[in-house]
Amino acid sequence: MATTIRSPQGIKIGHVDDVQELRRTRPAVVPERYVRDHCERPDRVPTNRSTTQVPVIDMSRLLGRESQNELAKLARACEEWGFFQVVNHGVDRALLEKMEGVAKEFFMLPLEEKEKYPMAPGTVQGYGHAFIFSEDQKLDWCNMLALGIHPHHIRNPLLWPKKPQQLSETLETYSMNIRRLCQRLLGAIARSLGLREEMFNEMFGEAVQAVRMNYYPPCPRPDLVLGLSPHSDGSAITVLQQDLGSAGLQIRKGNDWVLVEPLQGALVINIGDTIEVLTNGKYQSIEHRVVTNKEKDRLSIVTFYAPSYNINIGPLPRFIDDKNLAKYRTYNHGDYSRYYVTNKLEGKKSLDFAKIRK
Fold first, then answer.
1. How far apart, in whole angstroms, are the C-alpha atoms of residue 139 and residue 228?
2. Known InterPro entries for this protein (predicted)?
3. Maximum Cα–Cα distance for the chain, whole Å?
């Protein structure tokens, strides 16, 4: 039930329980490694459950006669929220449902089957826990399967599960559709900034795409734990498919955490660190986290879309002037990606890598 975890340097940092197996024992007490410090617990920061909602963008309008109105709406969503839900996005609902089904089927497999695809220390591919680097680090109430998708050379075929049989084929089709969506979204985001539609897609080269499936079992004390620690994403954009049966994603809005309510057929999009750097902070990556539920489990499927590892990233000249000096340096995206995956999730600290020190 427990896995021995070592740091990227090979230092043993303790045993980590498989959360699903732990849940099957129906513990009355949450193990100490999952219990958050008081200041980090979900109920310690207000959660906005009012009528405030993350913006909803209609992709069909972006491509139709109402494109200017929807484009202005997209610009406001990116600048004021960093998150939005997208509808009429072109990904078939049957495919979304099939992907959700095979992902959940994987997590329901016996532990010994899932452990055939272990996530190595300092990496984010395979099954298990990511971003664990110290023995006293608090753990997320979550199991995950993460896989590199594109370009093909980033894949580790040994980590692609053989069961369920349809997982690989479904994931290939799903990822191809999500990739097309990401390219269209980047085109629309570029237009919303007054840039050429193809600017980001051309700049990113052979863009990197990865997927992570997250499974959050019910937790006896959801007030004490987090499903996923607060963080921003290192991608350019991220596409999230939420489980309609259980809300859990929260985003930071000012001093509040806003719950992102799942919408039928919608996908959740968020701005990643790369777009924040390119726009010199005009569009910002937003801190987000996941909370758990006492009665319901939750599944999410996340696609990260980012520049090629050999691309250099820095603020675009049009977003720098005498009143708005460059906030970030130019850096190699591959170097940033390695930095991101070898440090624990901790708010927006990952962007310290790129910030210009004053």
1. 9
2. DIOX_N (IPR026992), IPNS-like_FE2OG_OXY (IPR044861), IPNS-like_sf (IPR027443), Oxoglu/Fe-dep_dioxygenase_dom (IPR005123), Plant_2OG-oxidoreductases (IPR050295)
3. 61
Asked if pLDDT for residue 65 goes beyond 60, the answer is: yes
The answer to pTM > 0.85 is yes
Residue 19 confidence (pLDDT): 87
No. of H helices and E strands in the chain? 9, 17
SS3 218: coil
> Which residues have a Cβ under 8 Å from the Cβ of 99 and sit 6 or more positions away?
170, 171, 174, 241, 301
Distance, in Å, from the CA atom of 72 to the CA atom of 124, rounded to the nearest integer, reads 36
Q: For 245-283, what is each residue's pLDDT tens digit?
A: 888 999 999 888 999 999 999 999 999 999 999 999 999
Strand 312-313 with 208-216, pairing: unpaired
Pairing state between β 56-58 and 312-313: unpaired
Average pLDDT value for residue range 335-352: 90
Q: For residue 149, what is the DSSP state?
A: E
Exposure of 43 by Cβ count < 10 A (0-12 exposed, 13-18 middle, 19+ buried)?
Answer: exposed
pLDDT in tens, 169-186: 999 999 999 999 999 999
Structure token digits, residue 25: 């024992």
Domains of the chain listed by start with CATH number: 2-353 (2.60.120.330)
Residue pair 241/171 in contact by the 8 Å Cβ criterion: no
Residue 244: DSSP 8-state: T
